Amino acid sequence: MKHRDHCSGPVRDWTRILQRRLIADDIRVRSLQSQIRKIVSSRTESLSQTQIPITSGVKLQTLNYIVMVTLGSRNITVIVDTGSDLTWVQCQPCKTCYTQPEPLFNPQLSPSYQSVQCNSRACQSLQYATGNLGLCRNNPPTCDYLVTYGDGSYTRGELGQDNLLLGTTQIDNFVFGCGRNNKGLFGAASGLMGLGRNDLSLISQTSHVFGGVFSYCLPDTDSEASGSLIIGGDSSVYRNSTPISYTRMVPNLQLDTFYILNLTGTSIGGVAVQAPSFGKGGILIDSGTVITRLAPSIYRAIKTEFLKQFSGYPPAPGFSILDTCFNLSAYEEVNVPTVKLQFEGGAELSVDITGTFYFVKSDTSQVCLALASLSYEDEIGIIGNYQQRNTRIIYDTKQSILGFAKETCSFT
């Protein structure tokens, strides 16, 4: 391999030739940059984005967050759950269904509804998505599913597919569970939206449309307050008041449908908290869990520092899993230390004041620190939705990164 100047004979005006070559080189670079811009632009333009109001489920007797979508031609309200994969709704005819204010979804009234067959890829993905094999029925030929949750709740039915409308974007042939036997702590929601990482999750099924990126901003529990669930990666629609800081999602082959982060530290009122469990084992971030659970050593360290800074207030009895409670009924105003969680790469989640205290009684005679301890040191911690309030949380499943930024949650 020889340089092309080797064949051109003796060089008479080397400076002039070099100048022409550098000009040609610059033209080539501009051409490459133009090609790259066109490729990136075409790929970006081919991806859609949609925005849906997200609200507290208090009015439906749940502390989870809910959104309304359209399945077939029916508007349904479902719980948003990043810790689950399969989206499901209660269906007619129903053998055992809990009470919901909305009419049950009736597949027979939706001309676009189809049953999912047993030999389909979706049916074969059930074991990975739910932990239970898809079961085949011959009459009619359907793929039956079963999902059980950690609190004992469950849903059982068959897989179906129908058109799903998310905001203004329609997803054809969306695979979901048509629940005929459902029981548990779902409040009065019509079902659940699975935003996990398995092939059956809404995010995976719509990755060709939205690029595998979604984000949300969770408002407080005021039933009138509304945040937003944004599916798609255009950050220009965010209303964050601080820059987005990103951390990587920690790979875990056994738990790869979950979003796991590396919690490296915490601070209370600007004071760093020390604990041996930081940086070990990972911590889940989950919109379907309400109260954050921490390793015992981390929780004890946070509790000790919080009580040191939030001192002088009369204690109140513990409430359920919450053991750090106060009677603040005699105070019009209190100074609450800021709780911050730090993650690998310098990302930081600053817990909003509305996510620091859990108000057991409305007269503030029993107000508890909204954090709880796990039973054992080797259990995996979970960041619950209470601590995610008024924060834009961005999930990028393609790059396996997750971002945090402060935002006052509102939907317009």
TrEMBL record:
Highest rank taxon of the organism: Eukaryota
GO MF term (any one): aspartic-type endopeptidase activity
Xref: Gene3D superfamilies: Acid Proteases
CDD domains from the UniProt entry: cnd41_like
Keyword Hydrolase carried by entry: yes
Keywords: Hydrolase, Protease
BP GO terms, sorted: proteolysis
Peptidase A1 domain boundaries: 65-405
InterPro entries xref list: Aspartic_peptidase_A1 (IPR001461), Aspartic_peptidase_AS (IPR001969), CND41-like (IPR033873), PEPTIDASE_A1 (IPR033121), Peptidase_aspartic_dom_sf (IPR021109), TAXi_C (IPR032799), TAXi_N (IPR032861)
Active site residues according to the UniProt entry: D81, D286
Family recorded in the similarity comment: Belongs to the peptidase A1 family.
Protein name (record): Aspartyl protease family At5g10770-like
